[in-house]
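User: My advisor asked me to double-check a structure prediction for Fatty acid desaturase type 2 before group meeting. I don't want to rely on an old file, so could you generate it fresh from this sequence?
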Amino acid sequence: MGADLDQSALLFELEEVAEREVNRHLAMAKDWHPHDYVPWSDGKNFAALGGVDWDPEQSKLSDVAKAALVTNLLTEDNLPSYHNRIAGDLSPDGAWGTWVGRWTAEEARHSTVMRDYLVVTRGVDPVALECDRMTHMTHGFQPLARFPHGTGAAFLHTVAYVSFQELATRISHRNTGAICGDPIAEAIMQRLALDENLHMVFYRNICGAALDADPDQAMEAIANVVTNFQMPGSNMPNFRRHGVLMAKHGVYDLRQHLEEVLLPVIRTWRVFERADFTARGEAARDRLAAYLEDLRTVQVPRFEEHRDRALARDKARGIDRALAPQAV
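Assistant: Sure, here is a fresh prediction for Fatty acid desaturase type 2 from the sequence you gave:
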């Protein structure tokens, strides 16, 4: 097995794969327009233009729906930071540049439609939402900060991370739509989930090809990403409180993370069936296997035990109203 490929060598080696995946994506992606999904007739002016400012009683969303929509929106808001990382670890040229531009343009629609929906329907406090956006975008993108940037290892960590993250976001969007109790919100979130799935397939296939091109280095990146995984919104205001509420009510929890995100992608890459690793790659694969087993046998059961006890306490106290439309 030769030396690790650097960034330029990996980009060159995978150029044909990138071109094929860009063409596949463009053939499958369907154009849509954010304004078509927003109930504009529900809107009215705020006090600055002679109307009435937001009041909690105006919201028709449950506590869980509010937490999930705000979390998903603030995650999408940080697109400039994601673009900066991905553009730096891919290339502005050829199929890579085409993908970075197209992916960024498609992702930009997500925050547009979600914010328009929430403001027009007065689903959440628009002032608090804007303050949280300012804070979150000022902090930028943190989950990949611990990994290298602008090298072959950085490219591999980035494509491995987004392979899992795009699928996780798809699931979070889909489940958020389902708990909103509003067919318009559900249609919006289903539309976003379709985009995220196509984005995941691009990155998953690129990372799979990278495993063939540089097995040991790619396997180390995958193991590093999985064992240190954080969602891109992990440093946003109220992320922990909102994340607990979302996990408690099945929007995105640890079992979903394991069974609907990590395992399907890893199976697609046939990580545990490969025979092209040296001892170095096998050590990374063993580390990944141990982590997945700990998730399955320890972390997931522990989370579900705590969740079930918390839900039972809420029910006994008659305060399990998180899924009912109400003011925060």
